[in-house]
# Entry
Amino acid sequence: MENPITIKITILQPVHKVWDYFYNPRHIVKWNFPTSNWHCPKAESDFREGGRFNYRLEYKDKSFGYDFAGYIDEIKILESVKSHLDDGRKVEVKFNKIDENTTEIIEIFEPELQNSIEMQRVGWYAILDRFHKYVENN
# Structure
């Protein structure tokens, strides 16, 4: 990875639940957006090595949206997933089991060139924090 950005969060739930909520499309549509004026109306995933994923993120007023899409390169069940986006950037998500009811997620991703590093870090962390709240409250 070139100049990766790393973010992490600790979730008070078992690793198997965190894993399921992170990769199951029926959950992804509930949390995969940065703020309440966004939503994720569609999430598709062929969750296997070589499989494709596509998550649609949009402003609720439909004034702007984009597909977050790519391919899964490597899966280590309940440990990590490596993937690459359609623009070639790489993403790795690690799941560290702290204890039976605590999981740390670490996301490592290559930044894109249009937005500042800090803006990307804040945006990705906002989505990860929304995920954290969703998993702990459902």
Q: What stands out?
A: Strands lie at 5-11, 38-45, 52-59, 65-76, 80-85, 90-99, 102-109.
